Amino acid sequence: MPTSPNPDKILAMKIRSITYFLNPAYPLDDQKLQFAGGFLQVARPAFVEAGYEVQSARLATVPFTNLLPENKPGELVRLAQALEATATQLGYDYVSLGPALPEYLESYTFIPEALAATQSAFFSGLMTTLNGMVSLPAIHQSAEVIQRASVISPDGFANLRFAALANVPAGSPFFPAAYHQGGEPAFALATEAADLAVTAFSQADNLEQARTNLVNAMEGYARNLTVIANQVEKQTGVRFGGIDFSLAPFPSEERSIGTAFERLGVPVLGGHGSLAAAAILADTMDKAEFQRAGFSGLFLPVLEDATLARRTADGSLTLKDLLLYSAVCGTGLDTIPLPGDASVGQLSAVLLDLASLALRLDKPLTARLMPIPGKRVGDLTDFDFAYFANSRVMSLDALPLNGFLDGQETFGLQRRPYR
Question: Which CATH number is associated with domain 1-412?
Answer without folding.
Answer: 3.20.70.20
